Amino acid sequence: MRRSVGFWGVGESGRSTRWAGLIPAGYSAVLTALITGPLLGSGYLLLRDAVSTPRSYLTDSALGLGDAAPRAVPQDALLAALSPIVDGGLLVKAILIVALWAAGYGAAVLARALLAVSLGPQLVATTLTLWNPFVAERLLQGHWSLLAGYAALPWTALAAYHLRSAGADAGPRPSPNPVAVEADARTTSTDDSRRSPTAPSTRHGRRERHTRSTGRGPRWRRAISTGQQSTTVAAWGALAGCLAAAGLTPTGSLLAGCVALSTVGRRNLPGTLALLVAASAPWLAATALSGAGAEPSDPTGVAAFAARAEPGLGTLGSLAGLGGIWNADAVPDSRTTPIALVATILLLAVVASGIRAVLTAVPEDRAGLRVRRTLFALAVAAVVVPALASTGWGMEVMRWLVVEIPGAGLLRDTQKYVALAVPAFALCAAAGCRALAARIAARSTNAVEHQSVSRGGSAAIPVAVLFVALLVAPLLDLAFGVGGSVRPVHYPLGWQRVAEKIDATGDVAVLPGGMFRRFPYSGKVAVLDPAPRMLPNDVLQTGRLPVRGLTVSGEGTRAVDAENALLHGDSAQRLADLGVGWVLVERSTPGPLGDSAKTLPQLEKRYEDQNFALYRVPGDVARATETPGAHRIIAITAHLLWATLLIGGLLIAAIYRPIRR
User: Fold this and answer.
1) pLDDT at res. 446
2) CB atoms near residue 661 (< 10 Å)
3) Which of 660, 649, 639 has its CA nearest to residue 260?
4) Helices in 549-628 by DSSP H: which ranges?
5) Buried b / exposed e across 591-628, counting CB within 10 Å, b at 16+?
6) Could you tell me if 520 and 490 are in contact, meaning their C-beta atoms sit under 8 angstroms apart?
7) CA atoms within a 13 Å half-sphere pointing along the CA-CB vector of 259
8) pLDDT reported for residue 619
9) How far apart are CA 181 and CA 187, in angstroms?
10) Where residue 182 falls among pLDDT bands split at 50, 70, 90?
């Protein structure tokens, strides 16, 4: 019988397989705890782009309806909806930790489903998925929600595999239960012996017609039919949940969408595309309603966000080693030394050891073979295309895309898409572990069971330990929050008091100018201003990003006009005309203040302490920029659709998952 693995990692062989399925889950939890250890304490994640706050609000910006492109939907709306119930900092840490655990465990389940590997190779797949430069760099950059999309990739591929297995292209059906077949054969033989010799075919014909008309027949046939239907329903539910989970950010939607659309097969493409659009509804609706995403992106961002070459590797080598993020400061210390070259060689050696096995045909599982080959092709493209995009002519193509095609700005950080290589890399590592263990077992033992030798026998665990060591040792500084860099912070009480004082309409302008801050409590690196998530009114942000000595412009002009009005010392009336009702001065961070000292005395001071000063703009604040109520209703409906897919899809996958005895 072809081996089957459920969506949660439970196989068909009973209690022992269930316990074996728990070991990769526990191992993934241990690695996740080693990586995120500091976050298990109290406090909030505040590191570069990562901003978690005790409470956030369902503002227009949280719904993606502000001036900036909707890059943080539906994650901001999710936190705004849940943070009144559960502390927002706890939510962000929980999502990040669960995402990393799911990524590692999903890799083990995918390897077991597509390769039928034993426990040792599964743990190797888990290790490669969690302990790699991509995870380290995205943690340091603060891309916690992108890692949720990363975690969905192996589960998306697994759902696609189950859909293909249940379809016409799955190859031969599983063999029936031999006991049931033998019993059915005996019954048929007995009936034949009692049949009248003058009418041997009449009774048989009536029996076949009865089976077709009533749907009753041999038990194994009904079981197969029921199992296939259950698998199909569960697979569609799992796919919906995975696409929604990945859709926590637009980039996550694109990552999971690439995996899903390339692996589900032609029969399932229309349904998959519909699910992808529904899972992307929050940012698609926000883009259409706000119009911000329709504006061309700043072409300066192409060079600023291009993949970066690491020491001794070049751009292609860095990407093949799952590194190469554009921000040279958001990398582990080990990646700034020749150790990066050693780590990449070891990683690629582990992956290369299993390429042949991953691409080799398995006659009884054509669906699995096609999924494996597709994932491998996707991995090659995920490394080669970003490398080409960092060349001179590649950047020219990218500049044309971001200027001429609305929304193409999502593609400028090309290193993000290296995540697509990880599922295939994990499969290759698992297959290589099994292949090496099988060679060792064949030479050192006289095992007579072919299956035991082919799976490596007793050599599988030692080889797995070797592979794990080769992957972990060169990147030891990933442990404990990437060397202690990813750790929680504690906000001063003044943030809460400022939020309580904002009790009237009008957007908030913030001083000093710029979007990034260096607070005494946030560490040495610049962090994204938490004001937009701390305050109940929309906070105007220019979207200007300082990257590699360049300044990448954002979308919209009103935030830029408001900041310039403050820095130039314009009148309070000018701020009111721009829709600014409040001005917050963050005193504990450096940054440009310009001539704002001329404007601030014209405002009404509402709160002041050593860290903050809050001012109310007097007079009538312009309401021309107010978002129409219909737009908010549409945006909220899109978010509810996304939440329905996430919760409903996972529930369907859990309820209808096939149970095999």
Assistant:
1) 55
2) 7
3) 649
4) 558-567, 572-577
5) beebebeebbeebeebbeeebbbbbbbeeebbeeeebe
6) no
7) 33
8) 83
9) 10
10) very low
Tokens of 222: 């009904």
Q: What are phi and psi of 488, to 5 degrees?
A: -75, 155
Q: Which two structure tokens, joined as six digits, stand for 356?
A: 């042949």
For the chain, give every domain's residue range.
Answer: 15-170+239-485+640-655, 491-616
What six digits make up the tokens of 245? 């989970």
Q: Label residues 447-466 b or e (16+ Cβ within 10 Å = b).
A: eeeeebbbbbbebbbebbeb
β-pair type (612-616, 580-586):
antiparallel
Name residues whose C-beta falls within 8 Å of residue 230's C-beta, 6 or more positions apart in sequence.
656, 657, 658
Q: What is the DSSP string of 166-209?
A: HSGGG-SPPPPPHHHHHHHHHHHHHHHHHS-TT-HHHHHHHHHH
Phi, psi of 256 (to 5 degrees): -65, -35
> Which residue in 527, 521, 557, 525 sits closest to 542, CA to CA?
557
How much is the pLDDT for 212? 44
Location of structure tokens 């706050």: 53
Q: How far apart are CA 618 and CA 576, in angstroms?
A: 8
Q: What's the whole-model pTM score?
A: 0.88
- Give the pair of three-digit tokens for residue 350: 């582990």
Rg from Cα positions in the chain? 28
Q: In angstroms, how far is CA 158 from the centroid of its own chain?
A: 15
Nearest to 522 by CA among 139, 138, 46: 46
pLDDT at 361: 67
Per-position DSSP letters for 477-508, written without gaps between them: GGHHHHHHTS-EE---THHHHHHHH--S-SEE
pLDDT digits (tens, 9 = 90+) for 469-480: 999 999 999 999
Dihedral of alpha carbons 471, 475, 480, 482, sign? negative
Q: Which residue do the tokens 């465990």 mark?
A: 105
Cβ-contact 263, 161 below 8 angstroms: yes
In angstroms, the CA 338 to CA 72 distance is: 36
Query: What span, in angstroms and rounded, lies between the C-alpha atoms of 510 and 539?
Result: 8
410-423 residue pLDDT tens: 888 999 999 999 99
| Residue 615: its H or E element | strand 612-616
pLDDT of residue 252: 96
Element (H, E) at 527: strand 527-528
Measuring CA to CA, which residue among 476, 382, 417 is closest to residue 132? 476
